[in-house]
Amino acid sequence: MIDKTLMLDFKTLKENDISIGEFLYLTNIYYTGELNLPEYSINLNRLEENKLIKIINGVNILREKSINLIEMSLTEISISIDDKKVIKKSKRYINSEIESRITEYRNK
């Protein structure tokens, strides 16, 4: 069961040179088809060249890079009628934000 929210960070997608469709395809593999996404025309060879998947005997296997990318994008959001919206970011996402801000600060 999927119990987290997926947040797309377009900067991260651009840095990893993948499209939204490719990212959703990787996420669907991560959740073993639970998302019931329609078939996209994904260039699997490009994903393999970017070291995001490994194709073995026609089976697409996620590599650590893509697993980290997906897990960094997962967050927990708890919403109830009485409470305000609370967004909990993953530790990896927070660390990547901190690292990008440190780099931005040093470049100034």
Which key phrases capture this entry?
three-stranded antiparallel β-sheet; two-stranded antiparallel ribbon; 108 residues; alpha+beta; 5 helices; 46% helix; 17% strand; globular; single chain
Written overview of the protein:
The protein is of the alpha+beta class. 46% of the residues lie in helices and 17% in strands. It contains five helices and five strands; from the N terminus they run βαααββαββα. The radius of gyration is 16 Å and the shape is globular. The mean pLDDT is 80.
Order of helical and strand elements:
EHHHEEHEEH
Strands ordered across the widest β-sheet:
1-4-5
In terms of DSSP E residues, the strand content is 15-25%
Radius of gyration: 16 Å
Basic shape = globular
The residue-averaged pLDDT reads: 80
Helix content: 40-55%
- What can be said about the biggest beta sheet? 3 strands, antiparallel
Calculate the terminal CA-CA distance, rounded to whole Å. 45 Å
Q: How many runs of DSSP E, i.e. beta strands?
A: 5
- Please tell me the total number of domains: 1
User: Structural class of the secondary elements?
Assistant: alpha+beta
Stretches with pLDDT under 50, minimum 5 residues? none
How many H/I helical runs?
5
